[in-house]
C-alpha cells in the first residue's frame, strides 16, 4: 500500500481536518485561502481516520432510535445549510430554494427506503454503493456527525 | 451486503480503495499515450452532447444551455471584460523601465500565440504556462512579478487571448519522458478525488457538465481553458486560470495549491492538450 501511496501523497490531500469550512458558492479571496491553508500530510490523515470512525459508528449504533419531532425540523435545517449538508446543491427537495440537478429529487423516500439504516448508510458514505458517485461521504469525511445524519434521515422520511 | 456492515467497517479502507479506484494513473503509468487519451476524451464529450457543435465546447457553461447562451450572446454586445482588455493592451505596449517590453519575451511579439500555451520547456524540464511566462518576462526585465490571481495578470492574458481568438489550440508534447510524465501527472491530478467533499476535477467537469450545482451550470472539461481568463459576475471581476483552479479546490474544501505549483501547471498542460483543435475563445464572460 505504501508504495502506491507515496507518489500520491504529494498531489492527493484528503484534508478532512483543520480546515475552516468554505461555504460553497461563497465569494472567497484566493489570497486568503492560500495564506491560511498549509498542506496536509495525506498519510497522516489516512492513518488517523479509521479508528475515529469506527468509534463513532459504534456510538451511533448504541444510540436510542426514538427521535423527537424537533429532530425533523433540525434535520431540514442541516440538510439545507450550506455549511452542513448542503443537499440542495445536488437535490431538489421540497421547501428548498435554488436546487441543483446532479442527484435525483428526494421524494417518496419512505417507500423507497423503508429501512432508515439504508439512508444512514447512503449519507455516511454513498461510495460504498456506488464508487463513482458524486455524493460526498458525509459521515466518513466528518462533514456531518452521526447525530446530524440521524436528524437528516428523520427529515428525509417525511418527504 | 447490508448497509450497516460497510458503515462499521467502511472507513478502514475506504479512502485507500476510493483513490485507487479513481486513479487511472496507478494502473496505466507505464504506457502514456496522449494521442489516444485526447481522442478518447474528445469523443466522450462529442458522444455525450451530440447536439453541441464541436467548436462550441470552448464556451463553458454556455455550450450546455440554450437559454443561457442567448443571454450571453446579448451580453457580448457590451462585454464585461472590455475594460480588462483595454488595460491589458495598454500594459502590453508600455515598455518596462529598462526600455524593453513584453513583446521582446515572446515569439511573434506575443501576438496570436495563446494557443501554444502551456508548452513543455525542455531546458527546465517543466511545463511553462502563459501566466508563468509573463511573470518571468517581468522579472527578467527587472520588474516585480504580478499576483497570479489578480487583475493585472488577467488583463495581460485577456489581451493575449484576444489576439489569438479563433486560433486552434495547438499544444505539443515533445518526445521527452519528462513531458510525458508531466502530461500523466496532470491527468492524474485531474481524476484524483481530494478534499473533504471527495471530489475530483472530473466529478464536476466530466461526470456532470450541463448539470446545475445549486444555481450554476457546470462547464464541460473539454475546452475548459480556451476561454480563460474569464469575467465572472460572482467575482465582479476577472479571473485567471490560476484563480479558477484555486477557487474550484477551495470551494470544494480541498486544499488549494500555490498558483503555478507543478501540479497546476501539469493539469493545465493535460487540459489544454486534450483540447487541441478547438478554438481559443478568451477572454470569456460568465454569469
UniProtKB/TrEMBL annotation, chain A:
<dbReference type="GO" id="GO:0046872">
    <property type="term" value="F:metal ion binding"/>
</dbReference>
<dbReference type="Pfam" id="PF00034">
    <property type="entry name" value="Cytochrom_C"/>
</dbReference>
<dbReference type="GO" id="GO:0009055">
    <property type="term" value="F:electron transfer activity"/>
</dbReference>
<keyword id="KW-0408">Iron</keyword>
<dbReference type="InterPro" id="IPR036909">
    <property type="entry name" value="Cyt_c-like_dom_sf"/>
</dbReference>
<protein>
    <submittedName>
        <fullName>Sulfur-oxidizing protein SoxX</fullName>
    </submittedName>
</protein>
<keyword id="KW-0349">Heme</keyword>
<dbReference type="InterPro" id="IPR030999">
    <property type="entry name" value="Thiosulf_SoxX"/>
</dbReference>
<feature type="domain" description="Cytochrome c">
    <location>
        <begin position="70"/>
        <end position="159"/>
    </location>
</feature>
<keyword id="KW-0479">Metal-binding</keyword>
<dbReference type="GO" id="GO:0020037">
    <property type="term" value="F:heme binding"/>
</dbReference>
<dbReference type="InterPro" id="IPR009056">
    <property type="entry name" value="Cyt_c-like_dom"/>
</dbReference>
UniProtKB/TrEMBL annotation, chain B:
<feature type="signal peptide">
    <location>
        <begin position="1"/>
        <end position="28"/>
    </location>
</feature>
<keyword id="KW-0408">Iron</keyword>
<dbReference type="GO" id="GO:0070069">
    <property type="term" value="C:cytochrome complex"/>
</dbReference>
<comment type="subunit">
    <text>Heterodimer of SoxA and SoxX.</text>
</comment>
<feature type="binding site" description="covalent">
    <location>
        <position position="105"/>
    </location>
    <ligand>
        <name>heme c 1</name>
    </ligand>
</feature>
<feature type="binding site" description="covalent">
    <location>
        <position position="201"/>
    </location>
    <ligand>
        <name>heme c 2</name>
    </ligand>
</feature>
<feature type="binding site">
    <location>
        <position position="244"/>
    </location>
    <ligand>
        <name>substrate</name>
    </ligand>
</feature>
<dbReference type="GO" id="GO:0016740">
    <property type="term" value="F:transferase activity"/>
</dbReference>
<dbReference type="InterPro" id="IPR009056">
    <property type="entry name" value="Cyt_c-like_dom"/>
</dbReference>
<keyword id="KW-0808">Transferase</keyword>
<keyword id="KW-0574">Periplasm</keyword>
<dbReference type="Pfam" id="PF21342">
    <property type="entry name" value="SoxA-TsdA_cyt-c"/>
</dbReference>
<keyword id="KW-0349">Heme</keyword>
<feature type="binding site" description="covalent">
    <location>
        <position position="204"/>
    </location>
    <ligand>
        <name>heme c 2</name>
    </ligand>
</feature>
<feature type="domain" description="Cytochrome c">
    <location>
        <begin position="181"/>
        <end position="287"/>
    </location>
</feature>
<dbReference type="InterPro" id="IPR025710">
    <property type="entry name" value="SoxA"/>
</dbReference>
<keyword id="KW-0249">Electron transport</keyword>
<dbReference type="GO" id="GO:0016669">
    <property type="term" value="F:oxidoreductase activity, acting on a sulfur group of donors, cytochrome as acceptor"/>
</dbReference>
<feature type="binding site" description="axial binding residue">
    <location>
        <position position="248"/>
    </location>
    <ligand>
        <name>heme c 2</name>
    </ligand>
</feature>
<dbReference type="GO" id="GO:0019417">
    <property type="term" value="P:sulfur oxidation"/>
</dbReference>
<dbReference type="GO" id="GO:0009055">
    <property type="term" value="F:electron transfer activity"/>
</dbReference>
<feature type="binding site" description="axial binding residue">
    <location>
        <position position="137"/>
    </location>
    <ligand>
        <name>heme c 1</name>
    </ligand>
</feature>
